Hints:
The protein is α+β, with helices and mostly antiparallel strands. 43% of the residues lie in helices and 23% in strands.
Amino acid sequence: MTRLERLRDKANSLPLQPGIYIMENAEGEVIYVGKSKKLKNRVSQYFRGGHKDYKTQRMVSAVYDFDVIIVDSEIEALTLEN
């Protein structure tokens, strides 16, 4: 299984709940933190490919793993992201 397939499978197993996601590189360094109303939908978008934005393409190519923190509301996710 490739890195991208592994990440895609992990993203597809996420719940449709609000939360934040923390993207990490191979060294375990945090390279991006984002929030979402529906984690599964948002995080899986990154690993489908076809990004027109160079910045997003570059970030996704550096992602080795990600973690999520599930919260009760989008407001809580926004607060935690900040």
